[in-house]
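This part of the workshop introduces the protein records we will be handling. To make this concrete, we reproduce a full record directly below:
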Amino acid sequence: QVQLVESGGGLVQAGGSLRLSCAASGRSFSYYAVAWFRQAPGKERELVAAASRSASNPYYADSVKGRFTISRDNAKNTVYLQMNSLKPEDTAVYYCTAGILQGNYNYWGQGTQVTVSS
């Protein structure tokens, strides 16, 4: 059982940066694969980035490659999403997720709003 709480969202100008954090509770968090999703109004939910237990070979959506970085600190039970060179198209609610198997994310946080102004 894992509980996730996102933070770090907010309003930023285009070209700026934000770092999202996801605090996880659960004694076996280090065994879980993690991912960040986002959903903008009128658009489908999108997988933004995903990391295995070690985060050695992360996945990134084409739309964010080279700009976003997913990382995790298992000792602190925390997942991060560093977002650089933000664009208005990045505006969405961002969700932290986790699951025992990569690609099967059973646990979701409440989401945090990211708004990028032009």
Notes: The chain has a mean pLDDT of 94. The radius of gyration is 13 Å. The CA atoms of residues 36 and 96 lie 5 Å apart.
